[in-house]
């Protein structure tokens, strides 16, 4: 990075600080809310935010006990959720031998996720956000338990797994929208980048441990036990949500009907920075999400079966985890729109590089015959290089996510935050499912290596055009957060 660029320099931060805007190094005390006490949106940090360490800032965990419990509960239950995502893909592939059939898990869930993601945001702007999150968690837990039950009953038709995966995805979308609209009520805005980085660590742990553990469990004790472990781990989510204080939306509360979506759409029309942050993420997730290829990669390209699938899935999270661990400086980045554009461009480059790895491997195995389910039969060089590139993609995506989440939470008013967060959650959760369809269809009609190679280059080109064409986003100022 150019040291003369104001994106990440303390000199530019202080020299260009607008009059009337509080410094991010506020020294006013913050008292964390206790259970039953309404959190204050104007709360300030417990300590001056003057740290310059490269390691993750743990201040949010110390400043707010409710946030700490919510974060820990979500991380533990999320590990099980990611295990089930991998297990469902492996289960359907085992039943159908079809990558396209695996991609349909995301396709079938897409429209319900959009509808209920938006409605979940409406509920979060209307009712106690703690209650909304709790009910959604109950729905997800019951659906996961049912998934485990039919697997133990050896139900070998595919449609129940599609249905239950859709319900789980819908409930997770509502939980995500509600959870993220809760966080700004538990922490001051100065700590939101650090909170997003901590969420990156939890997400990295989820996708690192979950898929890897799923690969090992499926290969050793079977899919049924993999689902069952998720049922057990999900209990942690309830502990985090139960301990929250009641969080009623501030200001004029939203209406409970779908007509409230119109208010959110009207807000987005006048919020170019928030709107573009959604668009760039959709582009990245649509063209750069190769996860539905992993079962085929493990079977006919790299080899190694379920363990390879788990490792490749975990690679993205390893990168996200490492980038969050070393995220201490991100809280001081002022020009966050520019940072988002750069991070997504790097993401596209790593995805294209992964496509090159698959292309070279395909050239070495032109018949695309089975290369063995045993991990000892895997092409270890291709697996290691592919793992590194996917980890790089995960790191870049996480940096983008930290700034996109911070932009939304800091610039959107509280009584609108649930609805806009619902749109954000739909984008984050729905974008990859659009990508699943893109990858599945293109792989079926072209080759396994072609979708990530093409998609990576498309991301680089499109993001460059969009960021350059939108100067308000490119010059978005974290010290004067405008939607």
Helix and strand succession? Answer: HHHHHHHHHHHHHHHHHH
Beta-sheet strand percentage?
Answer: under 5%
The number of domains is 1
With helices defined by DSSP (H or I, 4 residues minimum), what is the helix count? 18
* Second CATH tier, the architecture: Up-down Bundle
Rg result? 22 Å
**What does the main sheet amount to?**
none
Number of strands: 0
Which segments are poorly predicted (pLDDT under 50) over 5 or more consecutive residues? 1-51
CATH C-level category: Mainly Alpha
Overall helicity: over 70%
The CATH superfamily is: MFS general substrate transporter like domains
Oligomeric state of the chains in view: single chain
Provide the structure class: mainly alpha
Give the N-to-C terminal Cα separation. 27 Å
**Quick one: overall form?**
globular
- CATH topology term: Growth Hormone, Chain: A
Global mean pLDDT: 77
Pfam family, one: MFS_3
Protein name: MFS transporter
Keywords: Cell membrane, Membrane, Transmembrane, Transmembrane helix, Transport
Subcellular location: Cell inner membrane
Molecular structure report:
The chain has a single domain, classed as Up-down Bundle (Growth Hormone, Chain: A). The chain is 71% helix and 0% strand. It has helices at 10-15, 59-63, 65-96, 99-124, 129-152, 159-186, 192-220, 223-233, 235-242, 260-269, 272-287, 294-301, 305-325, 336-364, 380-411, 414-445, 450-469, 471-474. It has 483 residues and is mostly helical.
Draw up the topology in text:
Blueprint: H1 10-15, H2 59-63, H3 65-96, H4 99-124, H5 129-152, H6 159-186, H7 192-220, H8 223-233, H9 235-242, H10 260-269, H11 272-287, H12 294-301, H13 305-325, H14 336-364, H15 380-411, H16 414-445, H17 450-469, H18 471-474
Helix pairs in contact: 3-4, 3-6, 3-7, 3-8, 3-9, 4-6, 4-16, 5-6, 5-8, 5-9, 6-16, 7-8, 7-13, 7-15, 11-14, 11-15, 11-16, 11-17, 12-13, 13-15, 14-15, 14-17
């Amino acid at each position: 990075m150019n040291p003369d660029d104001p994106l990440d320099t303390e000199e530019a931060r202080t020299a260009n600080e607008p009059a009337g805007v509080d410094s991010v190094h506020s020294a006013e005390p913050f008292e964390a809310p206790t259970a039953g006490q309404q959190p204050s949106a104007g709360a300030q940090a417990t300590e001056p935010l003057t740290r310059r360490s490269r390691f993750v800032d743990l201040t949010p965990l110390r400043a707010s006990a409710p946030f700490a419990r919510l974060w820990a509960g979500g991380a533990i239950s999320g590990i099980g959720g990611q295990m089930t995502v991998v297990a469902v893909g492996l289960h359907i592939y085992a039943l159908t031998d079809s990558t396209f059939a695996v991609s349909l898990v995301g396709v079938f869930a897409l429209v319900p996720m959009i509808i209920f993601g938006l409605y979940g945001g409406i509920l979060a702007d209307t009712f106690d956000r703690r209650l909304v999150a709790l009910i959604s968690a109950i729905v997800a837990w019951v659906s996961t338990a049912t998934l485990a039950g039919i697997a133990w009953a050896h139900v070998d038709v595919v449609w129940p797994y599609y249905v239950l995966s859709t319900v789980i995805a819908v409930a997770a979308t509502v939980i995500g929208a509600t959870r993220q609209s809760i966080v700004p009520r538990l922490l001051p805005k100065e700590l939101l980048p650090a909170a997003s980085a901590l969420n990156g660590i939890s997400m990295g742990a989820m996708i690192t441990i979950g898929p890897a553990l799923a690969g090992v469990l499926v290969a050793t004790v079977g899919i049924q036990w993999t689902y069952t472990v998720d049922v057990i781990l999900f209990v942690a989510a309830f502990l985090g949500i139960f301990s929250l204080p009641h969080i009623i939306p501030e200001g004029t509360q939203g209406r409970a009907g779908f007509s409230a979506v119109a208010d959110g759409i009207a807000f987005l029309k006048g919020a170019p920075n928030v709107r573009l942050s959604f668009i760039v993420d959709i582009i990245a997730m649509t063209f750069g999400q190769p996860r539905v290829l992993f079962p085929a990669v493990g079977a006919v390209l790299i080899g190694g079966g379920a363990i390879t699938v788990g490792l490749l899935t975990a690679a993205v999270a390893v990168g996200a985890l490492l980038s969050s661990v070393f995220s201490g400086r991100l809280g001081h980045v002022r020009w966050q729109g520019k940072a988002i554009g750069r991070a997504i461009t790097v993401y596209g480059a790593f995805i294209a590089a992964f496509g090159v790895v698959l292309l070279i491997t395909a050239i070495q195995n032109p018949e695309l015959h089975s290369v063995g389910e045993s991990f000892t039969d895997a092409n270890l060089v291709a697996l290691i290089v592919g793992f590194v590139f996917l980890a790089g993609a995960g790191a870049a995506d996480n940096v983008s996510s930290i700034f996109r989440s911070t932009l939304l939470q800091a610039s959107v008013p509280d009584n609108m935050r649930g609805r806009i967060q619902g749109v954000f959650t739909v984008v984050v959760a729905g974008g990859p499912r659009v990508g699943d369809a893109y990858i599945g269809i293109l792989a079926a009609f072209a080759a396994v290596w072609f979708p990530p190679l093409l998609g990576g280059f498309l991301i680089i080109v499109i993001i460059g055009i969009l960021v350059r064409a939108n100067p308000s986003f490119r010059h978005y100022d974290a010290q004067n957060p405008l939607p």
